[in-house]
Design brief:
This protein has 666 residues and is an alpha+beta fold. The chain folds into 2 domains: 271 residues, Beta-galactosidase, Chain A, domain 5; 377 residues, Glycosyltransferase, CATH 1.50.10.10. Strands 1, 2, 3, 4, 5, 12, 16 and 17 form an 8-stranded antiparallel beta sheet that branches. It has an 8-stranded antiparallel beta sheet with strand order 8-9-10-11-18-15-14-13, covered by helices on one side. The protein has a 3-stranded antiparallel beta sheet with strand order 26-27-28. β32 and β33 form a beta hairpin. α4 runs parallel beside α14 and α8 packs antiparallel against α9. The termini are far apart. About 4% of the residues have low confidence.
Length: 666
């Protein structure tokens, strides 16, 4: 099986289980129990994986394989994988040498956050003993673990529950199982993670194994329920890192009489029913990004390494929540984020270490206005919610109009200026050390489109904003079109120098046509912009961030951190931009009177079909963060990205709701 196919089981708090369809861990982020100690941040890897094998009349046979440095996959003669199925959760069928089948499954129960592992012998066939060694670390999810004397192997055994706490500052690990536990501490050394090596990062890890679980598969299926919970001692700090991590022990531990198998079956039935309630795979996948923060709800920007980001939350919300009718959750998130408005700005990032929010984005606040507007347009909000969101919009626009951090403020022409040396404020935000790859200081085109849309939205209930909107809109039409009519400048007053322009062909100009409630262009100029974007930037998996003819263009996202960040917005394609592109295309077709059924079918074949195919590549059922600008447009970055999936859902809704022109019969 392909080691690039990855599965994700999210726990609704920022933690998850994740791995590959072939069973090998290829990333430091692959784990069976990874919890968020300050949801959705403070992530800790507790159980990285397992070593599992069976013992029968024919001897010992491995069910799992491991990759060790430099590139050794062992054992070579592990049980042959017959199939992998993602639904309702990751499940493998393995054929033993004697022809018998073992079914392995893994799922995360979203109600408790616990990971359930199951093994079952299919069709009988005589005695078969299963042995499972858990592989533990207890590290930050960005780090790697090495053998060290501080690791605490001690186990607390209480009936069918075994607890370990590798280090005092991480949550304890509980294994609730119907197997027998034997304490046999050991180290497994030099695991190799090939995806990390490809990214130019450290890729070697040592893992500790405290003991072995034994099961008789001839008698019954085997279960291990893994949970992050409080330390075994009663004096654990209730405000420590484990305080907000859910455990299967936190809810009715005696409901099943302490029987692990009964509890596992109940969790499986409940979780299967929850998943079956989603109408399709996209909506089921979308649920992975909706998580609880320490207070309220939020959207995780992506897995495995992103937490919640302001810009990503508001862009992704339109597809993940509004397009799918999850309006209660959208309301809760928008209301919660109003608490963080400061000088007109919303934070773009909450640090993993629990530090102060980072107010380093010019567009996160403006995307909030767009998301709030589209939510309010649904008619779902009560009067109190409407008042609170409108007050938030007013605070953002007032702060921006008066001037705020990082040189952000309304200029004399009504447009929004932004930027200062050393800061990356737009969505093109790659930075390597002190090097800002795409600083875009001045008046970026998509920021102006957002600004003018935000002013028009607020002007609907407060006429005070209408004059500024008119001035900014007039300035946009005068200043952004290129003299030859081929498209729009990416930046005017670049580097805050009046009259200086940046004519780079980038996808940001598409926001003057689509992706926002109110287009700023129409007619021949709008058609020229769309034609340029389609000709120079369109790929099957997204829009390139720079035209290939540009000398700075980089067609492949690869190598170490500096090399990858240099390519991030200099040619790399982004799937989330397909939503704005499609909306622009639909609007122009409708204006031209050529939006008929054939056009809609063509749009589905050209732009939805490649994204649908991608659901079976990379992050299964999800859409990747980015792809190479050059063919064959290999997916890269995070394999599970919220706004990428969100825009696919929004594209579906746009095509579903489009009203084709009816062609009269002759």
């Amino acid at each position: 099986m392909d080691d690039t196919l990855e599965w994700l089981e999210a726990d609704g708090r920022g933690g998850y289980a994740s791995g590959t369809a072939c069973g090998l861990r290829t990333r430091r982020y692959h784990a069976l129990l990874l919890c968020a100690t300050r949801p959705p941040a403070g992530r800790k890897v507790l159980v990285n994986g397992v070593e599992a094998w069976v013992e029968g009349p024919a001897g010992r046979e491995a069910l799992t394989r491991q990759c060790y440095a430099p590139d050794l996959v062992v054992p070579a003669d592990a049980a042959a994988p017959l199939s992998f199925d993602l639904h309702p959760w990751p499940t493998w069928l393995l054929r033993l040498k004697d022809g018998r089948i073992v079914r392995m499954a893994c799922f995360v129960d979203k109600a408790t956050g616990s990971t359930v592992l199951r093994w079952r012998q299919e069709g009988g066939g005589g005695p078969l003993v299963l042995k499972v060694r858990p592989l533990l670390s207890g590290r930050d999810y960005h780090a790697l673990h090495r053998e060290n004397p501080a690791f605490d192997f001690s186990a607390a055994v209480d009936g069918q529950r075994v607890r370990w706490r590798p280090y005092g500052d991480v949550p304890a690990i509980t294994a609730h199982t119907n197997g027998r536990y034997a304490h046999e501490p050991d180290w497994y050394r030099n695991f190799c993670y090939v995806r990390e090596r490809e990214r130019g990062l450290d890729d070697i890890e040592d893992l500790a194994t405290p003991g072995v679980f034994t099961f008789d598969l001839a008698d019954a299926p085997a279960f291990i329920i893994l949970a992050a919970g409080a330390a075994p001692d009663a004096g654990a700090d209730a405000h420590g890192p484990a305080a907000d991590v859910r455990s299967v022990d936190d809810r009715s531990p005696d409901a099943d009489g302490g029987d692990a198998a009964a509890l596992a079956e109940r969790l499986a039935a409940r979780e299967a029913a929850r998943r079956a309630a989603f109408p399709d795979r996209l909506r089921r996948a979308a649920d992975a990004y909706l998580v609880r923060r320490t207070q309220g709800l939020t959207l995780v920007a992506g897995y495995p390494w992103f937490t919640d980001w302001g810009r990503d939350t508001f862009i992704a919300m339109r597809g993940l929540l509004l397009a799918t009718g999850r309006l209660d959750e959208a309301r809760a998130i928008l209301v919660e984020w109003t608490r963080y408005i400061s000088q007109g700005m919303l934070p773009n990032h909450f640090p993993d270490d629990g530090g102060e929010p980072a107010y380093n984005s010019v567009d996160a606040s403006l995307w909030f206005v767009i998301a709030a507007h589209e939510y309010l347009e649904t008619g779902h909000a009560d009067e109190a919610t409407q008042a609170r969101l409108r007050a938030g919009v007013q605070a953002i626009l007032a702060g921006y109009a008066a001037g705020t951090r990082h040189g952000i403020g309304a200029d004399g022409d009504g447009l929004l200026r932004a930027g200062c040396e050393g800061m990356q404020l737009t969505w093109m935000d790659a930075k390597v050390g002190d090097w800002v790859v795409t600083p875009r200081i001045g008046k970026p085109v998509e920021v102006e489109a957002l600004w003018i849309n935000a002013l028009r939205i607020a002007g609907a209930w407060d006429p005070a904003w209408r004059g500024l909107e008119a001035r900014a809109g007039d300035a946009f039409l005068r200043r952004f079109p290129k003299p030859d009519g081929s498209g729009l400048y990416d930046i005017v007053d670049a580097n805050h120098e009046p009259g200086r322009v940046d004519g780079s062909i980038r996808p940001n100009q598409v926001f003057a046509l689509g992706g926002l409630p109110y287009p700023l262009l129409e007619g021949p100029l709008a058609a020229a912009v769309l034609a340029q974007v389609e000709r120079d930037l369109l790929t099957p998996l997204g829009l390139r961030t720079l035209a290939p003819a540009d000398a700075r263009y980089i067609g492949h996202y690869q190598g170490g951190l500096a090399q990858r960040d240099a390519a991030y917005h200099q040619g790399t394609a982004w799937p989330w931009l397909m939503g704005p592109f499609l909306q622009a295309w639909l609007r122009l077709r409708a204006q031209a009177g050529t939006l008929d059924h054939k056009a809609l079918d063509d749009a589905r074949a050209r732009w939805l079909a490649p994204l649908y195919r991608h659901l079976d590549e990379g992050g299964l059922d999800h859409v990747s963060e980015i792809a190479d600008g050059d063919a064959p447009h290999r997916a890269a970055g995070a394999p599970f990205q919220a706004w990428s999936l969100g825009e696919l859902l929004r594209m579906e809704a746009m095509l579903r709701d489009a009203v084709p022109r009816t062609v009269p019969k002759e």
